[in-house]
Amino acid sequence: xxxxxxxxxxxxxxxxxxxxxxxxxxxxxxxxxxxxxxxxxxxxxxxxxxxxxxxxxxxxxxxxxxxxxxxxxxxxxxxxxxxxxxxxxxxxxxxxxxxxxxxxxxxxxxxxxxxxxxxxxxxxxxxxxxxxxxxxxxxxxxxxxxxxxxxxxxxxxxxxxxxxxxxxxxxxxx
Length: 174
Prior knowledge:
Helix content: 25-40%
Structural class: alpha+beta
Distance between the termini: 90 Å
Radius of gyration: 31 Å
Number of strands: 7
């Protein structure tokens, strides 16, 4: 029979394993990383953008018909953002032409400047006719970066809607 004697200097006696500590530390780090990602996601995205999304879903076939009618108009709507002399002030020029290149005289044009990443700084500009098919108005943009120009053109009972993404350079705003 073999006997084992434990001496005070023997390191195997009373030593606790680090494996459970490493195991729980690993999952603790994963939990903290997940909580951080959830917090970032919830604080950076405001959620659903479309108001009355259920009703718009019900009118989907009407929307498709409106798109086909707009495509049949064969209008071209072009936008230009010109400096108006002061940082952040811009002259917004919109040109509307038909499929044959002839200028379209619209009854009304509204441009909505929308910031895709922030709420509360969007603005609506109603443009005035400057000449055949040329409309302009003043806009104030105080943040550089991407903006959506949502253009709405009315002529009689015909409507044309389009969206253009523009980038405003940091040197052009205050």
